[in-house]
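Office hours follow-up: a student asked to see two folded examples consecutively, so here they are.
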Amino acid sequence: VQRQDKLSGLIGTQVQVMIEGAAPETELLIQARLPTQAQEIDGRVIINDLGPDESIVLSPGDMALVEITELAQQDLVAKLIKVTRAVKPSMAGLKIEFKEAAEIRHGRSSH
């Protein structure tokens, strides 16, 4: 009961979360976690509203600012406010892929 009261107190507040990816129930929901939520022990944050930019892409590891809108059992439901830190792909990995692709194309064109 005390935990529920603490979670209910977050409704209407903006908090920082880490994006984990699509929720297991449906890819229409994004699963995230507060720094205080332990995996498989505590609830999670479910983002069900991406705001005006529905085309936004969230990646696991991104940090985002969300507004908590409701409590669903142990889970908090939230609306995305903004991505505060996006995970950047490794440029080194991209360079290797481009180099290999160029070699394959070159190899094919020389036949």
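And the second, which I mentioned at the end of office hours:
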Amino acid sequence: KAFLNSQGIKFSESNIIANVCFLSQADNRAISDSSPADYMPKIDTALRASIAASSLLPVAAMAGSMNYADFIKMRAELLVEAARKLIKTAAI
């Protein structure tokens, strides 16, 4: 959120469910205030698709170059899709 703030994105626009990610404390500290363009490319390319799928992230975001508005729109769609599936089947 500090990085987004440095990019002119207000806290009220970044502090939303579609921008939440569960990370270990060590990983959170490692990426800290960095741009996704800095830390996403460090993820093994062989693991990116599975990480994106299990984290409900747009695969395109794994390159780190997606703009925030597009990321939030796509992530929100993935979250809605997963919630609807869960409601219908009780399984994601």
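Two things to take away from it. The two ends are 28 Å apart (CA to CA). Helices lie at 2-6, 11-14, 25-31, 36-39, 45-55, 68-89.
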